[in-house]
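Hi W., the nicotinamide-adenine-dinucleotide complex you wanted:
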Amino acid sequence: MKVAVFSCKPYDKRTLLAASDEHQEIELFFFESRLSLETISLAENFDAISCFVNDDLSRQVIDRLASYNVKAIALRCAGYNNVDLCCAKAHKIPVFHVPDYSPTSVAEHAVALIMTLNRKTHRAYHRVKEGNFALEGLLGFNLEGKTVGCIGTGRIGAAFCRIMIGFGCNVLCYDIEENRHVVSLGAEYTDLETLYSRSDIISLHCPLNASTHHLINKHSLSQMKPGVMIINTSRGALVNAQEAIDGLYRGQIGYLGLDVYEQEGDMFFEDMSDNIIYDSVFQLLLTFPNVVVTGHQGYFTDIALHHIADTTLENLKQMLSEGGEYKRELTFKN
Ligand code: NAD
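Structure:
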């Protein structure tokens, strides 16, 4: 089976090649390019493709993949908001993902953002390097006893709740489906309005879909405690960035930690240090002392990379066996 691997960085290539030792029947070809209508011709003559979070798997792209007789799409991520599953189903192209490569890695990154924003280690690091040991401006707060709101309590949200309960926080949760494990840890489910009004910190762990798009907007912000901390390690479009900036100016948001950004596709995972970034909203976000942005690195730990590589190859290998139900295949729900 010949597989075109898109958005492939050297670290992806290393872990995929190491994992492929056990899957000799799969031949991998690596492309740094993101999959898009401009790069789609690279997929011609391949049996399957493998993609990441910012690859374009819209209807037009999938139609072209079908015309090339590509037989499977193996995502190297958990989220699949970038895939037109309806179109893939119509072409009978199975789409696989890696649902649980390491929920802890993303949960721990959300906590890293909380700790950085609270104790201002991003600012302290630069001060100390310049011989400035003054503490004015670095005052933090104790997490113990604070109320943390977790929106989305699946794999990552549950891991996040476990850590925050360990800190001694009161954890309020909202999800369209309750997770009994989270309740057994000591968290409490509530409605969104209560979560907004009582939380000191709100962390997003739900998928991006029509019901969660711009969940954080001027309306939801107006229901929150003044000075609330918002953390988004899920998908950028959960937050309306312009309205978050307005919230930062008004002090409604006291701290903002983002690992994802709605328009991240043209920037993240690339070295843009010699380029002009033509996104004034993003540039403005970077000017706030109480905003920390990381470039979609929540998943980026050693264990997670290995699990992603192993599971991606296992997902593809299923295509070589006759019939049957596939594991980790995403199904389109009307
Ligand atoms: P999951 O499917 O295990 O959990 C998602 C939870 O969100 C589920 O419990 C679901 O019921 C809930 N949900 C769905 N719609 C909701 C809504 N409208 N309101 C509230 N909750 C809702 O997924 P997961 O593995 O925990 O991942 C969560 C998200 O994290 C992914 O969708 C992805 O976008 C993101 N992610 C980010 C990174 C990163 O590197 N930053 C890595 C992996 C995943």
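The pocket of nicotinamide-adenine-dinucleotide is lined by residues 78-79, 103, 106, 151-157, 174-177, 205-208, 211-212, 233-235, 259-260, 296, 298-299 (CB under 6 Å).

W.
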